[in-house]
Amino acid sequence: MSRIRRSLPLLGCLLLGCVLLALYAPGGALRRDEPTPRKAGWSPYDLAGSIEDAQNRLRRHPDDAAAWAGLGFLYLEQVRRTADGAYHAKARGAFERSMRLPTGDGEPYIDAVIGMGALANAAHDFAGAVRWAEQAREAAPYRWPLYGVLTDAHLELGHYRQAESTLRHMLDGRPDFASFTRAARLEQVHGRPGPARELLHRACSIAGDPAEYAFCQGQLGDLAWETGDPRSALAAYAEALAADPGHVPSQAGKARAQAALGHVDQARRGYAAVVAKAPSFVVEYGELLEHLGDRAGAGRQYAVFTAQHKLLVAAGKTDHLAMGTYEADHGDPDTAVRHLRAEWKRRQSVEVADALGWALHRAGRHAEAATYAARAERLGGHRALFAYHRGEIEQALGHTASARAHLTRALSIHPHFSPAGAARARRLLAATA
């Protein structure tokens, strides 16, 4: 039942209905009947080569502020591609070096400021990302990437109106890959998978390189997974990996879909390869192993996660959402509540509301848990996992009819939403039939 793999993971308003009407209406920018062309002819993505080229240029031109900012963005792309947070520090160093270099007007190089905002989002410092993006907007209001940083930050903070307003401005000014993928995410957050899928297909059709295409296909895979279609998810992840074989999120998604389809040996091999490169997926792998009866193997994966967390704490960085979610499912529920209350003070998003409600339920505080579960649903909690959590909480409160409704909804959204959770939901429904 892990959400730890997601940073933004992840996601009711008028904005996107208006956007889609403008884009798809007769005479609009996009047409629904246009097929999405498959990208062909790309060689395997060589991000490491691009980073090496940028580093070589900077050895020759160490005072090139634009090149330093570009290198920072390449490091951030490496994080997105490999889920390796070690590149965060390298990105920060490149952006800070760029901002220290002189520019014609004496101001910091604006792309480096935007990069610092993107880095803050990647490091889950969403309030910091807002500050960096607002600094960039004050200096260069028509630099459209800053609105992507601002949209992402507001979305993660639970500021959904601000996220939509910012994205509207971004779409008005630059309807491109970055804005379409964010619009798709907002559609998905609000429970509209059809429009989200259309926007992602359109984004895939205009992807500028293998990295963008892999990211977009990975998002299509995630969308198919969240809507209970592991076969389509598997196909999308395969498309992503054809463009970029090193795209770790799609490698993990492929293993996840294989497990749901009963290809357990393939899934185990896939997960083992993924966690060797990206420990952020160890809890998800451990949950599969635990469901399969391999408690020792699961324990090893959980030990990796807790060791990771200790290193973060030692560095002064605590991921309260990830740790709280882990403790609620596999550790001490009271500890989970403490972590998630701390996270709720930072950001009141749908994912944190659901996680705190679940932790409270696991700690035996069912009535308080129900208030957060209901809030998650009001904020746009349309995922099967959220419905399952609400069903368990209602069952604990003795509200059998409501529990059955939520558990049934969870399985109708996605019958394979989690190895243990889906099985538990079926057992509860059978017991109360």
TrEMBL record:
InterPro entries: TMTC_O-mannosyltransferase, TPR-like_helical_dom_sf, TPR_rpt
Recorded GO MF terms: mannosyltransferase activity
SUPFAM superfamilies associated with the record: TPR-like (SSF48452)
GO biological process, one term: protein O-linked glycosylation via mannose
Regions that span the bilayer: none
Pfam families, alphabetized: TPR_16, TPR_19
Domain of life from the UniProt record: Bacteria
Cited PANTHER family: PROTEIN O-MANNOSYL-TRANSFERASE TMTC2
Descriptive protein name: Tetratricopeptide repeat protein
